[in-house]
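=== RUN LOG ===
request id: a7f3
mode: sequence -> structure
chains: 1
length: 323
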Amino acid sequence: MWKMQDFKQKLGKSLMLSAIALFTPYMATLGWTGSLAGSRPLPEPVSAVPAPGLSSGKTIILDREKEVRMDAEQYLIGVIAHQIPADYQIEALKCQAVIARTYLYSLLDGKSEAYESELDVDYLEPARMEKLWGAEKFDEYYQKLERAVAETNGIVMMQEGRYIDGLFCRCSAGRTRPGGESRPYLASVDCLSDMEAEDYLQVKEWTPDEFSRRISSIPGERPVSADQVPGQIQIGERDEAGYVTLVQIGNYQFSGDEVRYALGLNSSFFRLENAEGNVRAVGKGIGHGYGLSQYDANRKAEDGWTFDEILNYFYQNIMLVFE
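=== RESULT ===
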């Protein structure tokens, strides 16, 4: 873990004053559930200051033959470019940078370098970013992502000395899902702004033949016939956030996620209903619903929340640690 002297040298003289500013008002009024190791403060947001050089001492090897190497912090720019809309607020992008860094560093597992092919990470090269955003937006968006990585340089999320599994989704169904015993830091929290997100509501419909064919394609030899639907469809269980965990169709049971993917639904928060003999699905949210909702995080950033406040809302009883 870094010493303060190393941290100051890394951010440079232009960031030194902001890096040592304490979040005393925030901690007094919002009751922060996380803290920094050694009670060291997070750097405050810096505007009109060029992003410092990105360096972590950890290396990602992009090409085995040519040994093309990139520092892990620089690599994160391409990772978050793949994960979150680049036109989101800077504090939301910082959240994603911390999430991606936590995951990447957990994969490195203490090693100083690793081949990209060994990591379960999606990465966008600059050429693909430009194709995604357009040439006119490339410089603006790239600099925003670079700033998001630079201003959270080295910060990861931990609980009890271990990296957390920083799950995230595009938007919840209005409330995130609890993580259970395996991920106790994933509490179920309100995300009411998600209901305003584009494609939040999804409606799809199938004939009995098409519906039964899709469900019967789920692995496990649980065939469903057209004459069983829609009459023999029951939602068996939901979690406390309303996401479907069990569906009974005829004599067989399916998980909510199995049905979601078989039907091509955006999330497992759905209901199935009789639509004049057809099967209609009405779904809400985009993604699995666990962890940070990117849409709600962006709305919180618009309302003045800082990245650490947002992260401590979605991931509870964690520590933000410099590595």
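=== NOTES ===
The first strand starts at residue 59 and ends at 63.
Residues 90-108 form the longest helix (19 residues).
=== END ===
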